[in-house]
Amino acid sequence: MTAARQHGDSYGVFERFVLTVKPTRVIEIGTWKGYFTGFLKRISDMGPGFKLVSYDTESFDEHKQFREEGIDIRIENPFTGDYAGLKDDVAAHIQEPGITIVLCDDGNKIKEFCCVAKYIKPGDYIMAHDYVDTAENYEANYRGKIWLSHEICDNDIAETSRQQNLETINKDMFDSVVWVCKRKK
């Protein structure tokens, strides 16, 4: 695990993915101290030039440095109620033309994923961290070997994925870094 609370291989995986997809915007839910956010900004600077917005409900001293680098870190909850929906400005940002990638990595990945999935457009991507497809697979192959946390699995998002017409993308690649990646058809 790195200072960004990411698997060490996440950086190469995300760099390849983002440079291939070439999103118009990346919305991160769960900034924490901003180290992964800073990494995403460096990818944007490499060429895709996407708009990056990161949300967290807690402020950290490190955010000042990243804001000075031009990263839009917002200390606010992007959800309404108990994950009943997204605030209007967040939903509108997702709906703007171009490809959106939403990263769910805050305190309740299941509710974040299930809520955000209703707002993404066909061709957009939704991802969630601390993912392993099943609890059994996590116990047998991930716990203490690859990762220390398991907060979301296929059963948690199966119904939402079906209802929202989401297909799994690059499963092997993202499994290796405990993320799930789905695209809206």
- Largest beta sheet: strand ordering: 3-2-1-6-7-9-8
Assess the beta-strand content as a share of residues: 15-25%
- In CATH, the homologous superfamily goes by the name Vaccinia Virus protein VP39
Q: What is the count of helical runs?
A: 8
End-to-end distance: 33 Å
Main sheet overview: 7 strands, mixed
- Determine Rg (CA atoms, Å): 15 Å
Q: What is the total number of structural domains?
A: 1
Name of the CATH class = Alpha Beta
Backbone shape: globular
Give the class from helix and strand content and strand pairing: alpha/beta
Question: Based on the structure given, which CATH architecture is correct?
Answer: 3-Layer(aba) Sandwich
- Measured as a percent range, the helix fraction is 25-40%
Number of distinct beta strands: 9
Which residues sit in consecutive blocks of at least 5 with pLDDT less than 50? Answer: none
- Quote the average pLDDT: 95
**Under CATH, the topology is which?**
Rossmann fold
Order of helices and strands: HEHEHEEEHEHEHHEHE
Descriptive terms for the model:
Rossmann fold, globular, alpha/beta, 185 residues, 7-stranded mixed sheet, two-stranded antiparallel ribbon
What does this structure look like?
Helix 1 runs parallel beside helix 2. This protein has a single domain, classed as Rossmann fold, CATH 3.40.50. It contains eight helices and nine strands. It has a seven-stranded mixed β-sheet with strand order 3-2-1-6-7-9-8, with helices on both faces. The chain starts with 9 loop residues before the first helix and ends with a strand. The mean pLDDT is 95. By secondary structure, it is of the alpha/beta class. Helix content is 37%, strand content 21%.
